[in-house]
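step 4 of 6: structure.
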Amino acid sequence: MTARAAQSAGGAVRPDDILLETRSVAKSFGARQVLKGISLQVVRGEFLTLLGESGSGKTTLLRLIAGFEQLTAGEIRMNGERLDVVPPYHRRVNTVFQHYALFPHLSVHDNVAYGLRVKGAPATEIAERVEQALAMVKMEEYASARPSQLSGGQQQRVALARALVNRPELLLLDEPLSALDANLRKQMQSELKALQREVGITFLFVTHDQEEAMALSDRIALLRDGALEQIASPREIYARPATAYTAQFIGQTNLLRCQVQGQSAICGPIRFSPATGPDGAATFSVRPEVIRCATGRVTAANEAIFRASIRQQIYAGATELLEVDCAGQLLRIRRAAGEPLTGEHEFAFSAQDAIRLRD
Amino acid sequence: MYSRAYKTIVSVPPLAWVGLFLLLPYVLMFAHSFWTVREGFIVHEWSFQNYRALLANPVYLGVFLRTMRIAASVTMCALLLGYPLAYFLSFRAGARKELLYQLVIVPLWVSYLVRGYAWKTILGSEGVLNGFLQYLHITREPVSFLLYSPFAVVLVLTHIYTPFVFLPIYASLEHIPRPLIEASQDLGAGPRQTFFRVILPLSMPGLIAGATFAFILSLGDFLAPLLVGGASGTMIANIVQSLFGAAYDWPLGAAISVCILLCTIGLLFVTERIEKRWVTQ
C-alpha cells in the first residue's frame, strides 16, 4: 500500500513516509498574528493543498517552508531534520510563484537552467535536463524566447519546468493558476495533476479556490485565521466536515441548529434519529443533494421527513436548486432538473447524512 | 484633436528656444573652429589650421588625456560609492529608506561653488584635514598633495557627481521585482550568485546611465580644477576657458570644444546602444 493510499484510506502513516512536518508553527508580523500554531504533516508523494480565504495564512505557511520568512515559534522538519534553520538556497524545495517570477533578462532555456547552473552542474547534464524539463511542459520550441514574449499560460509552464528540473523533494505552488483565465485554468489543472503523477514529486499547493482544491488534491488542509480548521481527503472533507466553517467553505450546505435528546435531534418541525454525540444544542450539516423530494414515496425509519413550501427553483442544466421554506427556516435542495414545482411538498433526508459539527 | 494653428503656436516657443540657445551656438562654435585669429582679430577664412595645431601641440593632447583619466577615475569612484549606497538603500535600509534617500539628495541643493570652496578649506595646507593629521601626529608638516592636484579634482568631482550615479542605479534597483530575488534563492543561489546573476544584470541600465552622467559631466567640468586643481590638475575645459578669455583665441577654443562634443556624442551613442541591449533582454 503506498503512503498516499494509506493516507486517503485513513490508515496510519509510517514515520518514514512523512516528508515534511510543521510543529506548532507560528508567525507574527509585528502585532498581527498570521499563523497561530500550525501542525501538519506532508506525506511523501501526495498532492496536499493549503486552502483558505485571503488572510488565512496559507501563503505565509508556504513562504515559511520555502525559507522567505522566519518562524516566530515552532519548527519545520523535512525528512526528520530541522528545515527552518537552513537558508532558502540550501533547501531541497522549489517554488512556483504566483506571478511566475521568471528572470526577464534570461531566455526560457537559461531560466530553466538557472538552478542547475548555480549548483555548478556539468554543461552536458544541464543541456540534457533542461531539454527534458521543457519537453515535459511542451515548451521545447520556445527555448530561446524571452519570458516577455510568452503568454501567461506559457510562462506558467516555464516556471514549472524551472522548478521541476531541480528534482526537488517538495514543490511549493503559490496560487500558480490564479493569474490565468478560466478556460486555461481548467486545462492547466488537469495538466498539473497529470504532471504530479508522472514525476512523483510531493506537491504543496496553495489556493483560495475550493473547486480547484477538490479537483487536484489527495488531501486538503483548510486554514482559517491562521489556524488549521481541518485536514482530510477531498471526499472526506466534503462528506464529513468538522465545523460549520468547513461545511460552508467547501461546497454548499444547510446548517440545522438542533436540540439533541437521547438519540434524536429536533430542529423545529424537522426530527431525525439516530443522532450522534452528547445531548444539548448542536449544529448539523445537511448537504443540498442529500435531501430528496418525498411526496408520495415510502420513507425509512431513520429518515427525517418534513413539509416545506417552494420559494424558488433555480435551473442549472443537469441539476436544479430548490429553495424551500420549512417553518421559517430556509433550506436548499439540489436535485436532478425536473418538473416545475409550486406549493407545499414533503422532503426527506437520511439521519446518517446529517453531520454533527464541532462548535 | 488640436487644431493646426494651436499646435503651431504651442510648438513655436520651445523650437525657438532650442534654435536660439542650442542650435545657433553650436553652429557658431562649429564655424569658429575653422576660422583663425590674425593680429588680434578673428578672420573668417576656412581652414583646418586649428585642428592641425591641436594635434601638433603635445600640451593639448596631454591635458586631454589627463581629463579622460580624471573623468574615468571619477566615474569609477562614484560607481564604487554610489552602487553600494543604492543597493543598501534599496534592499537593506527598511524603514529608514526615505530619510536616507533625502540625505543623498540634499547636497544637490547646495551650490556647486559652495561645495568646491568647502573642499578648499578642508584640503588646504592650513586646512581642516592637515590640522587634524598634525594634531594626531600622523604628519609633521602640512601634506601638500591634498590640494591643487589631480587627486583633489577627482575627490571634489566624485563628491559632486556621486548623487548623479546613485539616482539611476537606485531607480533601477527599486524596479527589480522582489519575487525574482526570492526565485533566485529558491533555485539554490546564495547571496553572491543572486547578486551577480540577477541583481547586477537587471540594474545594468541604471549603472550605465549613472556612469555616463559621471563621465560626461566630469569631462566638461572646469570649476573643480579651477578651485582645487592647480597647474597639475588642469583639465581641458580650463584650456577652453582661457582660450576664450585671456588668450583670445576663440577659433582654437572652438576646435577643442568640437572635439569634446564629438567625444561626448560618441560616448552617448555607445552607452545608449549598450543600455538598449540590456533593456530589450
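step 5 of 6: annotate
 - The first strand of chain B starts at residue 36 and ends at 38.
 - The beta strands of chain B are 36-38, 41-43.
step 6 of 6: archive
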